[in-house]
Amino acid sequence: MPISQEIKQRLPWLIIAAVVLIYLIVNFFYDPEQTTWSPKCILLQLTGFKCPGCGSQRFAYHLMHGDILGAIHYNYFIALLSPYLLLLLSGELLPSRRWRQYVHTHFVTKLFGFSYISLYFIWWVLRNILNL
Length: 132
Fold this sequence. Notes:
The protein is mainly alpha-helical. It is built from seven helices and no strands. Helix 3 (56-64) runs antiparallel to helix 4 and helix 5 (76-93) crosses helix 6 (97-107).
């Protein structure tokens, strides 16, 4: 049975969603602060500077265990960005073409892209200057 064109278009997103789900399941049971096999930030180890994603594993662990303030403490940027990423993911994975079109029309724009990139670099600099 041939794979439909729509499934072929969504396949990369489905793979990403599956990998993220597996990661979240593993991260739920193993605290990244307590495990030695949990990936470490190469930039932090080499330079001593935190990258914009530093703390994301601990953020996810604490968020999944209901410690919202603890999660936010580890990475403010991911806390700010998570609802937007979930919105984009829902626009790709939910079967409604109307919803997908709405998401792409209103939230996948040059303005959002420029805003994200700007905030990303601002966060990178601020977290190292202010030690966040």
